[in-house]
Amino acid sequence: MSESRVRRAEIAIEQTHVDRVYVRLAELRAQAEAMRTRGYELGRGAQSEAVFEQASMLYERDMMVFHANQTLQTLDAEYEGLVFGRLDHGSAEPVHVGRLGIRDADFDNLVTDWRAPAAAAFYQATAEEPMDVVRRRVIRCSGQSVLDIDDDVLMPEAVPDDMNVVGEGALLAALGRARGDTMRDIVATIQKEQDDVIRAPWRGVTEITGGPGTGKTAVALHRAAYLLYRHRRQLGGAGVLVVGPSGVFTNYISRVLPSMGETNVELRSLGQVLDGIDATRHDPAALAAVKGSLRMRKVLGKALRDTPPEAPTEMRIVYRGEVLKLSARELEKVRRKVHGHSQPPNRARVRAAEALLEALADRAEQYARDDGRSFDRAELVRDLGERLDFHRFLVVWWPVLYPAQVLRWLGDERRLARAAKNVLTAPEVALLSASLAEPDREWTVADVALLDELRVLLGPPPKRRRGQSAGAESPPERGGPARHRPEHYDEYSHVVVDESQDLSPLQWRMVARRGRYASWTVVGDPVQSSWPHPGEAAAARDQAFGARTPRRRYTLRTNYRNSAEIFDLAARVVAGHAEEDELPHAVRTTGLTPQIRRTDPGNRESATQLAAKEQLDAVDGTVGVICAMNRVDEVGRWLSGYDDDRLRVVGSLDSKGLEYDAVVLVEPSELVDESLTGRRVLYVALTRATQRLTVLASDDRWLAAGE
Ligand SMILES: Nc1ncnc2c1ncn2[C@@H]1O[C@H](COP(=O)(O)OP(=O)(O)OP(=O)(O)O)[C@@H](O)[C@H]1O
Q1: Which ligand 1 atom sits closest to the C-alpha of 523?
Q2: Mutate which of 171, 208, 216 to test ligand 1's pocket (most atoms within 8 Å of Cβ)?
Q3: Contacts from 125-129 at CB under 8 Å and sequence distance 24+?
C-alpha cells in the first residue's frame, strides 16, 4: 500500500475511536444538563417545606447545580482537540490520551487524562527507555475530525507485522504552524525534559531556567494545570497565582489555562498585583531602578512619619473657660512619640488620640499648678475625649492614610529629601520627585510595588461600608481585574512567577506577600534580564522563598521558537553577556537568514512600512514591529494605515515572553541605549520571531558583541 493510503487508513481507524469519544461526550453533557434541571426542580419544591428541610434541600440544590455547571464547563472547554495521542504497548490494549479522562458506560477507558500517571509514558518514553511503548502517536483534530497523525516508534524490534507507522515529527510540524494572538497549549507535544519539570513534586520551590523559546512559560502553565489535577485537595481551594511581566503577556497566555480546564488560576501582570490598579506604563530605566530598590522601603517608612501636608500646625481647645494650646513643635513631639511605638499609622489612631489628650492634660495641669488650683487629669481626658471639636482636630491631624496619597506627597522634593536623607542621592531624589509630582499621572508598573509596600506599612484603613473598595486609592481611581476573592488575598497555595529575572527587590516582596504559605514555580532567564542589580534582586528572591524546601532547579536547553538562523544573530549580539551554556540550542532551520537593512533616519518611516508589508505578505500568522519604548506611539502612527489585525507594534520591554511569526526590529541601537541592561533587552527583541526577521538600523553599534 502507498504511504498516503496507509495514512488514510490509519486516520480512519482513529476517526472511529474519536467518534465514539464524542458520542460519549454528548451523553455526559446530557447527563449533566439533566442533573442541573433536577437541581433547579429541588429548589422549587423547597418553598413549601419546613424550614430545616428547606435549608437542606436548598443546599442539595446548590451542590447539584454547582457540580453540573462545573462538569458542563469542563466538557465544553476541552471539546476542541479532546483526543490527541495514543500509546501502543507491547501486549495491552492501546491507550488514548487526551485533555480529559473519559470512560464509557461500562467504565472502560475511552480517553486517559494527560495528567494521569497512566499517560506519563506519552511524554516520558524514549527510544533508550521506551517504558513498554512500541508506538507513540500524536493525533491532530479539528472539531470532531481527525486531520492527521504522526508516529514515533520506540521499540522497533517489537513492532508487530500489522502495525503501521506514519509521519515524521509531530513536534516540528507543530512548531512550523502559524502563530495567532494567544499562546497555544503544547499538551500534545510536550518533550521529556519539559515533562520532568511539569510533573516535579509540588512542595518547595521549583526553578525553571533556560534561554528564549525553550518553553519555560508553556511548561510553567502546564505545571499549574498538572498540580491542580494531581493535588487538588492541597492546592485547589486556595488557588494558584500566575504573575507575568505585562498585561500584553497575560492576555497572550490567558487562553492556555482555561483550555486545560483550570479555573482555579489567577493571572496577573506585575502592574495588576495590587487590587484596584492596572498599571501598564513603564518608567525610564534609571527611575525604575530607584523605584524597585530595597532602599525605597526606608524612604517610605520615613515618609509616612512626616507631618501630613494638610495637618494643622497648632491646636487650640477651650476647656473650662481656659484655652489650651499646643504649638507646631509640641504637636510634632507628640507625633514622634506615637510613631515611636512602630505601629502602622492607621492602627495607631487610638494611641494618637491618647497621646494628644495627655499633652493637653500636661498643659492644663501646668496652668492649674501656676494658679495653685487643684486638677483632675482623668476628668479632662474623659471630657475632651468625648468632644466633637477634639475629634474634628484629630481626623485632620492624624488622618487615615492611603498608599496613593503618601506616595504623591513625595512629589514634593523637600519632603522626599527629608525622607530619603542618607538613603538616596540628590540626583535620585530629583528624578523620583519629578516623576511623582504630576497629580494626574497614571501609576507605572514600578509604582505598584511601592504602593503595596505602603499598604502594609500604613496598615489597613478602617472598614468601609459594603460596596466600597479599600484598595490603594482613596477614593478608588480605576477598576482592577475581576475579583472573586477578598481584596489583597494572600493565601495562594502555589505561586508561579514568569520572567522572574526582571523582578525588582520590591516586586519580589510584593509577590511574596501573596504566597506566604505557598509553594513556588519560578521561571526565568538571567541573560534576558532588564534589572540592573541582580545581586540585590536575588537576595530579595531568597527572602521571598524563606526556608521553603526542597529547592529544585531545571534547565531547559532547546529553543523551540526561533529558527537557527534567527537565534544565531541573537546569540552573536549577546555574546560576552552570557556563558556558553546559558544559550539554548535552536532545533529548526528555515533557510531564511535575518535581513539587516541600513536605513537613514530620514527614511525610517517608509522603511518600516515596507518591511511590515513584506512580512505580512510572507507569513500567515502574526507580525510584530518592535522598537524602543519611547518610539512606540510614533511607529504606531507610521503603521496606522495598515488594516490587518495580524500586525502589532510593541515596545522592547512589552515584547517579553511574546512571539510572532515575523518581526521587524526598528533601530536596535536605541534598545541598547534605552536600558541599563540594553544588550539583554536587544537579545529579548531578537528572539521573538519564529520564522522571519528584518532589522532596520541606521548604525552598527548594536552588532558590536560583548560591549
Ligand atoms: N513541546 C513543545 N511542543 C510544541 N511547541 C512547543 C513546545 N515547547 C515549546 N513550544 C513552543 O515554543 C514557543 C516558546 O515557548 P515559551 O514561550 O514557553 O518559551 P519561553 O522559554 O518562555 O521563552 P521566553 O524566555 O523567550 O519568554 C511557544 O510557541 C511554544 O508553544
Answers
A1: 22
A2: 216
A3: 125/87, 125/154, 126/154, 126/192, 127/154
pLDDT at 258: 65
Give the closest residue to 618 by CA, choosing from 692, 553, 542, 537: 692
Identity of the amino acid at 83: V
**CATH class of the region 564-697:** alpha beta
Residue 213 alpha carbon to ligand 1 centre in Å: 5
Work out the angle between the directed axes of helices 505-514 and 534-545 (0-180°, nearest 10): 10
Band (pLDDT 50/70/90 cuts) for residue 48 is low
Q: How far is the CA of 624 from the centre of ligand 1 (A)?
A: 17
pLDDT digits (tens, 9 = 90+) for 334-392: 999 999 988 999 999 999 999 999 999 999 999 999 988 888 999 999 999 999 999 99
- Round to whole Å and give the CA distance between 110 and 98: 9
Let me know the angle formed at the C-alpha of 450 by 445 and 455, rounded to the nearest 5 degrees: 125
State how far the Cα of 622 lies from the Cα of 640, in Å rounded to an integer. 16
C-alpha cell at 73: 464547563
Q: Hey, whose CA ends up nearest to atom 13 of ligand 1?
A: 561
pLDDT tens sequence across 574-633: 988 888 888 999 988 999 999 999 999 999 999 999 999 999 999 999 999 999 999 999
Give 561 Cα–ligand 1 centroid separation in angstroms.
6
Flag whether pLDDT at 414 surpasses 60: yes
Compute the distance from residue 538 Cα to the ligand 1 centre, in Å.
25
Ligand 1, CB cutoff 6 Å, lining residues? 171, 174-175, 184, 186, 189-191, 194, 210, 212-218, 525, 528, 560-561, 657, 659, 687
pLDDT at 482: 38
Ligand 1 atom 4, closest CA: 186
Percent helix / strand / coil, the chain, rounded to 5:
45, 15, 35
Instruction: Return the best residue to mutate from 171, 179, 186 for the ligand 1 pocket (most ligand atoms within 8 A of CB).
Output: 186
Q: Which residues contact 162 (CB under 8 A, 6 or more apart)?
A: none
Residues tagged in the binding site annotation for ATP: 210-217
- Grid cell locating 636: 504606531
| Pair type for strands 109-113 and 102-103 | antiparallel
Supply the pLDDT for residue 475: 38
The CA 503 to ligand 1 mean position distance, Å, reads 21
558 Cα–ligand 1 center, Å? 9
Q: Which residues pair with 266 in a beta bridge?
A: 241
Cα dist. 214→83, 158, 523, 561, 591 in Å? Answer: 25, 33, 11, 7, 21
Residue 456 has a pLDDT of 96
Catalogue the long-range contacts made by 156-159 (C-beta closer than 8 Å, 24 or more residues apart): 158/90, 158/134, 159/134, 159/135
Instruction: Take residue 390 and report the three cell numbers written for it.
Output: 477634639
Distance 212 CA to ligand 1 centre (A): 8
- Structural domain boundaries of the chain? 3-177, 315-397, 564-697
CB 686 within 8 Å of CB 573: yes
Q: Which helix (H) or strand (E) holds 110?
A: strand 109-113
Best residue for ligand 1 mutational test, from 561, 585, 658, 683 (most atoms within 8 Å of Cβ)? 561
pLDDT class of 483 with cuts at 50, 70, 90: very low
User: Which ligand 1 atom sits nearest the alpha carbon of residue 214?
Assistant: 21
User: Under 8 Å CB-to-CB from 387, ≥6 apart: which residues?
Assistant: 317
